[in-house]
């Protein structure tokens, strides 16, 4: 009897192990050409090989259509190989039955460009998206229906709402029909809903609607937060997770409140307790409940790693750029096999004459914070107008290139050792003790430990792996450490930027500054010469460089001084309320003029405005085109929106006693100002974007 029980137990265990190794069965996984994309409990399998891809978010409807291809190429240069994007319902159907799929809303063209640029795409379908959009992207007419009919409930499994969701999904599918992975297109996945607590049958209904509409894709996802109400059916939706360096949504006016610092430690918990804390309870953002423990068989993917962050009116977060690398280091060290960034590229909200298109406390839904009407820069690696935020762009790029060259090996390696600051996965060691604001002198890096390659063993390194070119391994220095590589028991001290032998291996350790110029393109390592970024264009490699214009200067004239600043009121959600249009009658007003005679293309010209105050707005012929909540950083404006129009800059003074959070550097600026408020315009510069053909290799 004992032998039978033992045999039965072994049989059950073997079934479990076999099941865990099998791939998930979602939609069609093969293209007409025979390429395959599958998902198993470790990660993604492309053409039979495990990979660790990198996903980055950009919102096509927040970026000019003419810029899509360029910006996608820049995202790829940063190491992004899967693009994710929200499809904001309110952007496409602001009035019931009146759809807009043209211009910046031309989803089909965006998807086609992704296909042409050979990048995969995940569509986040909604109906609710959030994205700091007015009402989370749900149109006002939907809210009106809910107000008129108590049986019509938004984000619920009620007939009327699901009928409207069916129309939404059907209409979206019509835009991407023929462009799914199974058609040879780029669409590999769709996300159902967003930050939804369920119940599960609501999410299941939406997935069924999506599948019936035609979304037959390799995988379907949901955000892994908050905890679901009711037990899910395993294997239907992949839960994807996230973490943020800080949060505009927090109610507190202090540095790094709550658990934001936990994003900077290694841990075996996937759920972040710092996302959307204004909406969800601690319990909903806690560890997965035992009834859902089967989700640990899901691969550990993320879709919202936030190295950047928007400033809300009441909370003016200033991202320094060093936050992104520690976030991804901690997630990789903790076992994650897909870094997904929100946002990787900023943008601008579409103009709406009836109401703001940004989140506001005064709206019927998603009304916890006041966000700018127009700007959605997010302090992302690529900003609102495509400007490069150098530190997160390059430090992220270094890791992404490492994942391209070593990701297949890393994915096979489990977490062998895990503590707050250190983790080991096989031959990869991850370390981080950097914490935003709390320990900014800390460091973050990944190094080799007992790594077999080229017939040798790399015992340890004090430098970070970057890429492989033929039999040459490139590393990047870790600042403050002597660059050394130990091979087969012998330590070699490396000269920076020089190829050398380390035992049997050919190695080269790049300085941090040299690495910022280095791009692996078509199997070669190329070096930018002008401080720009390199990417592949139609028929060549180009270097994109941003410089102050040597020929076009902005002339600024003050036409009205500011009146006494307003007393900042509290909004409906008990945080400071942003100014309304009438308040700008008290603003300082400046006209901006410039001479662009002889030019016929202004797409590569931008205004960079450095000011001090509360809120700044730029108007062109009286229409709002840009706004900014001051957090110590510059404001960017596309000159293509201004040329031939009367341009006015309005700045509201900032009261020293405003109930608004600022970081210590900005607080010092405010306190150093004489009087009761701060107001100043330091510079308005014309910045040019140049695209230079690149011909030289290292």
TrEMBL record:
Single GO term (MF): hydrolase activity, hydrolyzing O-glycosyl compounds
Pfam families (alphabetical): Glyco_hydro_35
Record's signal peptide: 1-20
Coiled coil: none
Location of the Glycoside hydrolase 35 catalytic domain: 44-391
Classification via SUPFAM superfamilies: (Trans)glycosidases
InterPro entries: GH, Gly_Hdrlase_35_cat, Glycoside_Hdrlase_35
One GO process term, biological-process aspect: carbohydrate metabolic process
Annotated keywords: Signal
Family affiliation: Belongs to the glycosyl hydrolase 35 family.
Protein name stated in the entry: Beta-galactosidase
């Amino acid at each position: 009897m004992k032998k039978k029980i033992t045999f039965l137990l072994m049989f059950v265990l073997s079934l479990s192990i076999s099941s865990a190794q099998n791939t998930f069965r979602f939609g069609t996984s093969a293209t007409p050409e025979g390429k395959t994309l599958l998902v198993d409990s470790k990660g993604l399998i492309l053409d039979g090989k495990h990979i660790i891809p990198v996903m980055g978010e950009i919102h096509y409807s927040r970026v000019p259509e003419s810029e899509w291809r360029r910006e996608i190429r820049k995202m790829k240069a940063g190491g992004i190989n899967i693009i994710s994007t929200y499809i904001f319902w309110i952007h496409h159907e602001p009035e019931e039955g009146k759809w807009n799929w043209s211009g910046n809303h031309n989803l089909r063209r965006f998807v086609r460009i992704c296909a042409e640029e050979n990048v995969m795409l995940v569509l986040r379908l909604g109906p609710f998206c959030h994205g700091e959009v007015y009402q989370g992207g749900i149109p006002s007419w939907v809210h009106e229906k809910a107000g008129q009919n108590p049986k019509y409930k938004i984000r619920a499994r009620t007939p009327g709402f699901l009928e409207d969701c069916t129309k939404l999904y059907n209409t979206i599918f019509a835009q991407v029909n023929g462009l799914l992975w199974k058609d040879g297109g780029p669409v590999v996945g769709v996300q159902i809903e967003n930050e939804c607590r369920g119940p599960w049958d609501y999410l299941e209904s939406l997935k069924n609607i999506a599948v019936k509409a035609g979304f037959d894709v390799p995988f379907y996802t949901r955000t892994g937060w908050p905890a679901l109400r009711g037990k899910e059916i395993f294997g239907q939706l992949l839960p994807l997770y996230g973490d943020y360096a800080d949060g505009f949504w927090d109610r507190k006016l202090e540095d790094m409140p709550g658990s934001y610092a936990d994003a900077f430690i290694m841990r075996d918990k996937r759920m972040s307790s710092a996302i959307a804390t204004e909406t969800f309870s601690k319990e909903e953002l806690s560890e997965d409940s035992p009834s859902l423990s089967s989700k640990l068989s899901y691969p550990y993917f993320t879709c919202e790693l936030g190295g950047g962050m928007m400033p809300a009116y009441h909370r003016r977060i200033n991202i320094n750029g060093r936050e992104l690398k520690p976030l991804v280091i901690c997630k990789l060290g903790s076992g994650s096999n897909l870094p997904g960034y929100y946002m990787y590229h900023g943008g601008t909200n579409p103009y709406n004459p009836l109401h703001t298109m940004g989140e506001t406390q005064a709206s019927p839904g998603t009304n916890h914070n006041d966000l700018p009407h127009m700007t959605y820069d997010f302090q992302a690696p690529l900003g609102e107008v495509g400007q490069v935020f150098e530190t997160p762009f390059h430090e992220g790029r270094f890791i992404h290139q490492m994942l391209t060259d070593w990701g297949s090996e890393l994915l096979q390696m489990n977490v062998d050792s895990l503590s707050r600051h250190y983790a080991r996965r096989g031959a990869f060691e991850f370390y981080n003790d950097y914490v935003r604001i709390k320990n900014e002198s800390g460091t973050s890096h990944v190094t080799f430990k007992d790594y077999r390659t080229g017939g040798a063993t790399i015992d340890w390194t004090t430098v970070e792996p970057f890429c492989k070119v033929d039999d040459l391994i490139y590393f990047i220095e870790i600042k403050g450490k002597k660059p050394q590589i130990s091979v087969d028991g012998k330590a070699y001290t490396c000269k920076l930027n020089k190829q050398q032998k380390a035992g049997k291996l050919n190695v080269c350790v790049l300085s941090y500054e040299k690495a910022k110029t280095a791009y692996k393109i078509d199997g070669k390592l190329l070096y930018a010469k002008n401080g720009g970024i390199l990417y592949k264009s139609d028929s060549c490699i180009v270097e994109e460089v941003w410089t102050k214009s040597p020929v076009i200067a902005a002339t600024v004239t003050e036409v009205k001084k500011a009146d006494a600043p307003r007393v900042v009121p509290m909004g409906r959600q008990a945080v400071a309320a942003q100014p309304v249009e009438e308040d700008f009658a008290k603003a300082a007003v400046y006209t901006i003029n410039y001479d662009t005679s002889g030019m016929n293309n202004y797409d590569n010209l931008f205004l960079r405005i450095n000011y001090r105050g509360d809120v700044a707005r730029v108007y062109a012929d009286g229409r709002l085109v840009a706004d900014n909540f001051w957090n110590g950083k510059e404001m960017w404006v596309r000159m293509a929106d201004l040329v031939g129009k009367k341009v006015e800059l309005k700045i509201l003074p900032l009261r020293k006693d405003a109930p608004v959070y600022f970081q210590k550097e900005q607080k010092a600026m405010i306190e150093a100002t004489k009087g009761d408020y701060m107001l100043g315009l330091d510079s308005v510069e014309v910045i040019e974007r140049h695209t230079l053909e690149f011909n030289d290799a290292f």
